[in-house]
Design a protein that fits this description.
Number of strands: 18
Strand content: 5-15%
Structural class: alpha/beta
Bound molecules: flavin-adenine dinucleotide
Family: Belongs to the flavin monoamine oxidase family.
Low-confidence stretches: 271-279, 373-381
GO molecular function, one term: polyamine oxidase activity
CATH superfamily of the largest domain: FAD/NAD(P)-binding domain
Oligomer: single chain
Number of helices: 11
Strand order of the largest sheet: 9-2-1-13-18
Order of helices and strands: EHEEEEHEEHHHHEHEEEEEHEHEEEHEH
Protein name: Amine oxidase domain-containing protein
CATH architecture of the largest domain: 3-Layer(bba) Sandwich
CATH class of the largest domain: Alpha Beta
Distance between the termini: 25 Å
Pfam family, one: Amino_oxidase
Number of domains: 2
Length: about 450
């Protein structure tokens, strides 16, 4: 009798999928323990990492920053492959620029004496909400003492609003106080717009469409790596290429969009034949949009939270969306529904050929608008903890199925048929490339441990 090697199929060739593949290949496949395949729906690897070129410079269509270099696995890889040096200019090679010039709608350049107190207020409030500071600022009162949001269901947006109102009360601000040289703006409306500008920047850091949807309590649980935030001269894609480079040709298959994952939640007598139309003893069957299919013992799902959500809320009965057969258990569906997922866009502008950067460096501009939805700067994060959800929901999304170690799961059916990785499954580093990386390592280790090959 020929004993088949366990077959692991990873869905998605982004940071999480390729990290898991890299780890599984080096620790298991190379030693003959498994078969491995990565299927990617798009026509390139990298997912939300995509280095490109614009006006002769290397730009990042997706992830740009290493958020804190100390302890970051992404920083470690970039160092190992010498990715911090490049002849070609790259996006944000100058890091964060200091001293922004703030311009209000209709072209009024704002004095820093007007902007700075509001910027300081906003930063103090956010640092407090994120647990980085114990005090908000002298005289600012929000709720009783510092217990705002203790009972859950409070948002970062409502906390910030209370902070601004308390500041205005302290400053006895009213609408009659004008600002010289600023047309129809009065001081209060300008302060409100400056505050909104910072809120919009914060929205790009969190991808929350509105900070009133961002859970207040979860904000302080988020972990940042210490140290500088830097960009990668050779491009973020160099990290992806390095992870993929260990995999032999053919392991990664592009243009293979997964449509349905059939799995076996219940213990069945003789799995063989139970998989519709299949003759394989492997418990999972993956159906692709091109009509082909593949069987597997384990599937590591690394598609984004947005793709999982689309599969759940398939209101248009679109047969092309990502689905599970039978559907995911209710507690998992509820967690996926509760968590937030936003859109982050970037805009690149090309300056006129007359502009000479060696004479006049393009300033760091901040724009203040009457309508609070215009700021674009360092966009970043896709998943967030929405009000009403919690970081426990990320653990729920990450739970493998079936898993006999989890209360209530069905024993007897083949274990770990479906595993989940991706930035939205990491409860303290979600929304980042390193969160995706760590989730890939976590699920690779889970399988290596399952087959007792962690130290092979
Ligand atoms: C504009 C922008 C800027 C960002 N900036 C930063 C930053 O500066 N720093 C930072 O740390 N993070 C940043 N991020 C976040 C970071 O890019 C992501 O957290 C990370 O890349 C996610 O990796 P992942 O593997 O979890 O998911 P993904 O990269 O989304 O990978 C999932 C893969 O699954 C594939 N897939 C989807 N559906 C299917 C299907 N049905 N069948 C087969 N394959 C499928 C996708 O094509 C994709 O390749 C940014 C994100 C964006 C959008």
């Amino acid at each position: 009798m020929v004993i088949k090697k366990p077959r692991i199929v990873i869905i998605g060739a982004g940071m999480a999928g390729l990290t898991a593949a890299n780890k599984l290949y080096k620790s298991g496949v190379k030693k003959g323990a498994f078969e491995l395949c990565v299927v990617e729906g798009g026509n390139r690897i990298g997912g939300r990492i995509n280095s490109s070129e614009f006006g002769g410079d290397r730009i990042e269509m997706g992830a740009t920053w290493i958020h804190g270099i100390e302890g970051s696995p992404v920083h470690k890889i970039a160092q190992e492959i010498n990715s911090f040096e490049s002849e070609q200019p790259w996006e944000c090679m100058d890091g964060f620029l200091d001293d922004p010039i703030t311009i209000a709608e209709n072209g009024y350049v704002l004095n820093s004496s007007l902007v700075d107190p509001i910027s300081d207020l906003f930063n103090n409030l956010m640092n407090f909400a994120q647990g980085k500071k114990k005090l908000i600022g002298e005289g600012i009162e929000i709720g009783i003492g510092t217990d705002f949001g203790r009972n859950g269901n409070s948002s970062v947006g409502s906390f910030l609003k209370k902070g601004l109102e308390s500041y205005w009360k302290l400053e006895s601000r009213n609408e009659t106080e004008g600002v010289f040289g600023c047309g129809e703006w009065n001081r209060k409306s300008l302060e409100e717009a400056i505050f909104a500008m910072h809120e919009n920047t914060q929205r790009t850091f969190t991808a929350a469409n509105d900070l009133h949807n961002l859970d207040y309590l979860a904000e302080s649980k988020y972990i940042m790596f210490p140290g500088e935030e830097i960009t990668i001269a050779k491009g973020y894609s160099s990290i992806i290429e390095s992870l993929a480079s260990v995999l032999p040709p053919g392991v990664v298959q592009l243009n293979k969009k997964v449509n349905i994952i059939e799995w076996q939640p219940e213990s069945v007598m003789g799995i063989m034949g139970n998989i519709q139309g299949g003759n394989s003893s492997r418990p999972v069957k993956i159906h692709f949009l091109d009509g082909t299919s593949m069987s597997a013992d384990h599937v590591v799902v690394t598609v984004s939270l947005g793709v999982l959500k689309a599969g759940i809320f398939n209101d248009n009965n679109d047969s092309g969306v990502f689905q599970f057969k039978p559907p995911l258990p209710n507690h998992k569906i509820e967690a996926i529904s509760r968590l937030g997922y936003g859109v982050v866009n970037k805009l690149f502008l090309k300056l006129s050929p007359d502009y000479n950067p060696s004479i006049n460096r393009f300033p760091f501009l901040q724009m203040v608008f009457h309508k609070p939805d215009h700021q674009v700067k360092n966009p970043k994060i896709p998943s967030y903890i929405a009000t009403g959800s919690s970081i426990a929901d990320m653990d729920t999304v990450a739970e493998p199925m079936p898993n006999s170690t989890v209360f209530g799961s069905t024993s007897g059916s083949p274990q770990l048929q479906i595993l989940f990785a991706g930035e939205a499954t990491h409860k303290t580093h979600y929304s980042t490339t390193h969160g995706a990386y760590l989730s890939g390592i976590r699920e690779a280790n889970r399988l290596l441990q399952h087959y007792h090959c962690l130290d092979v």
